[in-house]
Amino acid sequence: MNSLLKPLTSELDLYQSVEICEIKRESNSWQLQSSNNQEYGPFDSVAVCIPAPQARNLVMTTKPCWYRILDSVKYEPCLTAMIVLEGNKPDFRYASLENHPQVWRQIEQVENGKCAANLSCWVVHATPAWSSAYLECDYSQFANELAREFLLLNELSHENLLRLNGHRWRYARVNIPLGELSLFDNELQLGLAGDWCLGPNVENAFCSGIDIADKFLLNISKS
Ligand SMILES: Cc1cc2nc3c(=O)[nH]c(=O)nc-3n(C[C@H](O)[C@H](O)[C@H](O)COP(=O)(O)OP(=O)(O)OC[C@H]3O[C@@H](n4cnc5c(N)ncnc54)[C@H](O)[C@@H]3O)c2cc1C
Q1: DSSP class of residue 188?
Q2: 73, pLDDT greater than 80
Q3: Range of the domain at 103
Q4: Distance CA 133, CA 39 (A)
Q5: Residue 124 domain-assigned (yes or no)
Q6: What percentage of the chain carries pLDDT values higher than 90?
Q7: How far is the CA of 100 from the centre of ligand 1 (A)?
Q8: Which of 47, 64, 66, 142 is the most exposed place for a label (fewest CB within 10 A)?
Q9: Closest approach atom of ligand 1 to CA 200
Q10: Pocket test for ligand 1, best of 5, 183, 195 (most atoms within 8 A of CB)
């Protein structure tokens, strides 16, 4: 998915795999601190484009009045298993099982070209209810549980299972959005954006991102 962004960011000064754990306002500029104690800055402006509960922790001290606003945004989690099977079964590509009582929401086969010839690769998303119940389990525990159900559903044995990985999307799907395009403080030069401003999908994230960029640019053109 990130191949879309690579050409757009090729001329930017980009730091990857850096978790920012604190943003500090120091005499009209911003200083950022990472979880491995590196300092970044000073910067004139900061746009925080991460899930609302994580953004809330970052702006808590500099902009406490946003804390309650951000608290109103709610998410559903999604536990996911990535499964590699020997052989070409099952022979469907995609299944959406909204009404499955326990586990599944969606099963999707990874494109053939991305998997060796005699293997099939699957991504299995659990329902929000099941994901909430198992959210704090180990990766291996929930991935094994999802794989067990998947094999059972398709009448396959455990011997067909070659590889298994679990992924925990804690903030997977926005179900109560903010209802505004973005949040912006002109004086602090601080902006917040993300899908959670408007809804649960990429288009919402895109519209929110464009809006916060417009607000920063308008501000620069005025000064
Ligand atoms: C399983 C799944 C399937 C989906 N399928 C679809 C679909 O088919 N179509 C669709 O339109 N949408 C889909 N979505 C939703 C879509 O992925 C989101 O709406 C979109 O990615 C939100 O973009 P964003 O830029 O707001 O946030 P994100 O994509 O969540 O980006 C935020 C980034 O910030 C990083 N980050 C978080 N905290 C920090 C920190 N402290 N410091 C530094 N970096 C940090 C994160 O690692 C992440 O890379 C799906 C989501 C999931 C979970």
Answers
A1: T
A2: yes
A3: 75-174
A4: 38
A5: yes
A6: 60
A7: 25
A8: 64
A9: 19
A10: 195
* Residue that is written with structure tokens 């943003």 in the block: 23
The CATH number for 54's domain is: 3.50.50.60
Cα 45 to ligand 1 centroid, rounded to whole Å: 22
Determine the Cα–Cα distance for residues 154 and 158; give it in Å rounded to an integer.
Answer: 11
Residue 136 sits in the same domain as residue 188: no
CB 85, CB 119: distance < 8 Å: yes
The last residue of one of the domains, among 135, 152, 174, is: 174
The protein residue whose alpha carbon is closest to atom 51 in ligand 1 is 172
Closest ligand 1 atom to Cα of 21: 41
Quick check: 109 pLDDT over 60? Answer: yes
**Is 186 near ligand 1, meaning CB less than 6 Å away?**
no
Number of domains the chain is built from: 2
- The pLDDT of residue 94 is 64
pLDDT at 108 over 80: no
Residue 202 has pLDDT above 70, yes or no: yes
- Same domain? For 153 and 189 the reply is no
- The pLDDT, as a whole number, for residue 155 is 82
User: CATH number, domain at 142?
Assistant: 3.90.660.10
Q: Do 66 and 111 share a structural domain? A: no
CA distances to 34, 89, 109, 129, 130 from 153, in Å: 44, 12, 15, 19, 17
